[in-house]
Design brief:
The protein is of the alpha+beta class. The chain has a single domain, classed as Clavaminate synthase-like (Double-stranded beta-helix, 4-Layer Sandwich), CATH 3.60.130. The protein contains twelve helices and 16 strands. The strands form four sheets. Strands 2, 3, 4, 5, 6, 13, 15 and 16 form an eight-stranded mixed beta sheet that branches. It has a four-stranded antiparallel beta sheet with strand order 1-12-7-14.
Length: about 350
């Protein structure tokens, strides 16, 4: 693969769904110089307003990436065209003063960057810090999962982009594309995973109930283009029926096969890991006594449905408005109306 920070585990069946690239020293310097030049237009500082951040990053992505780092640009095009499910890039600029713009520029090249305002404030870039004193949810981060499982497909994150700023050796992020996993599953497990047999725990604090569970839904599905997709919050799931005898066995098999076909990555300083959240699952290894810091961004090919559902123009969208369009929200609202 040509990247010492990447390791394919097990059979490596997902290798053809992974793209890697090592930016040359000259290209890295060109990127750094270009980012500083564009940031000079905002007094040398990354803009505070998310709309200005979004605009600046899109301009830089359009004008800088191709001439400065053509190989990187070609790899990002493969991700944008759905030819790969994950990309891993090394030797990017590590200068902290331009890291925010670099993070948003790379994400903007992959898709339209956005965030859910009620979940993460009004920030497009999330700073993720993990150490032994952090308050991160270990169950949520250390199990295989997809993000936003309870949201409608057209509102979920498509691409998650992680730009490394600091990382203790031996701390990894793992990703498993679901396409090479599906053929290894037994017929009984696949039948269960494609049926509406699971319920997912939905987030608290949206005014529509506490510790509510989603309507029954399938874990595996087909995209409009025929790709295998997965929605799986492994830390917040239960069988839709109390007498389900397949549930435990199916999820155990799914987890085992994912563990046999995943890749493991060091998101070190100057490294980008970007992966498709609809077509695979990810997890982080424990930080232990170590430390990791990375910038995290979300991207989608289209924000049209989010704009329609929320009435927001973006690039941040009210999560409560998105939640109001979920099947469970409709049921709860209908139940409340009957009680009046």
């Amino acid at each position: 693969m040509g990247n010492s920070g990447l390791k394919l585990v097990g059979g490596g069946g997902g290798a053809d769904r992974v793209g890697t690239h090592n930016v040359s020293t000259t290209e890295s310097q060109l990127l750094a110089d270009g980012l500083r030049r564009y940031q000079a237009s905002t007094d040398g500082q990354f803009p505070q307003d998310v709309a200005r951040q979004d605009l600046l990053a899109r301009i830089v992505a359009d004008e800088l990436l191709a001439p400065a780092a053509p190989g990187l640009c070609r790899l990002i095009e493969k991700a944008r065209d759905d030819l790969v499910d994950c990309i891993y890039v090394t030797n990017l600029p590590t200068e902290r003063s331009i890291s925010s713009l670099l993070s948003l520029t790379l994400s903007s090249a992959i898709g339209k960057v956005f965030n859910y305002s009620s979940q993460h404030g009004d920030n497009l870039i999330m700073e993720v810090v993990s150490d032994q004193n952090s308050a991160e949810n270990p169950r949520a981060e250390l199990d295989w999962h997809t993000e936003g499982a309870w949201l409608p497909r057209e509102c979920r994150v498509e691409w998650i982009c992680l730009l490394g700023l600091d990382n203790t050796p031996g701390i990894y992020t793992a990703y498993a594309p679901i396409k090479p996993v599906e053929p290894t599953l037994s017929a009984a497990t696949k039948k269960w995973l494609y049926s509406e047999s699971a319920c997912f725990r939905e987030p608290l604090g949206f005014g529509l109930g506490v510790n509510e569970w989603s309507m029954p839904r399938a874990i595996l599905s087909r995209s409009p283009g025929g790709d295998t997709e997965i929605v799986w919050p492994s830390y917040a799931i239960r069988a839709a029926r109390s007498n389900d005898t397949v549930y435990a066995r199916a999820l155990m098999e799914l987890s085992a096969e994912i563990s046999r076909h995943h890749l493991q990555v060091s998101v070190d300083a100057g490294c980008l890991l970007a992966f498709n959240n609809l077509r695979g699952v990810h997890m982080h290894t424990p930080a232990g006594d170590g430390y990791r810091l990375f910038y995290k961004t979300y991207a989608r090919q289209s924000l049209r449905k989010l704009r329609q559902m929320t009435g927001d123009g973006g690039p941040t969208f009210a999560l409560t408005k998105v939640f109001a369009h979920t099947p469970k929200a409709h049921r709860l609202l209908a139940h409340a109306a009957k009680r009046q």
